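Sat 14:20. Reprocessing the chain from the morning session after the first attempt stalled halfway. Input below, unchanged.
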Amino acid sequence: MPFFFVDELKNNNTITNDTITNDTIINNTIIHNTITKYTITNDTTITNTISCKKVKPLSTIDLTEFTKHTWYSQYQQEVKYQNKSSFFCVTATYNIEPTRKVPLFNGNVISVYNYANLYQVNGKPLNTKDGVVLCARQPNKNSNSTLLVAPCNLPNILAGDYWIIAKDEFYKWIIVSGGKPDVKYPDGCTTPTDNINHAGLWIFSRTPIMKKEDLNTCINILKQFGYTTKLLIPVIQENCNYNNSFIK
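Finished this time. Tokens:
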């Protein structure tokens, strides 16, 4: 997500209380998986010859729920436009504003208000509610969880992938990937850390401090999807004032 500071298993595989039940596995390949407890739908291909699993965004989300309240980053990867020196009080607020437009695009657009502090909690803000607003565009009318994000004055060709790959049933948390995980590590794959677009991995919570069990759920989901989690860095949210940020 350029900051500015840029289903159900066809073979009925399910996860319940951290127990996996496999009815059918063909040629060592899981064709499709669903974790019904967390309303996750994701295509994942596992073979002996491909190192990175194939990950896709959810087919759809409830935009009203998604944009209802601010999201608080819990863990995220460094990217070219944001390093760990600003991993303090990071928030993302999405707002539906009918007048918001981007060049050469007539589809759905959501305003994105990002915020973070530099070097310390309640330090220098890198963006405020009166600062740079990004635009999340929905290029595929059939999938509102597959977004492109960039400053609103830029066309879609210069925007970065923003895929919602998993969510809680009640929108307590979401997992976002900056496109497909295609950088290989010994324990899995992830998105690049040295790009502006096609970069980033985030765990967001509706509350500043995420419940430990929810965080563990998100980490386990990422591992199941074939991501390495070793590049995720915690974001400090304790005692944040979010001064001059757009919070809802």
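Helices lie at 63-66, 212-224.
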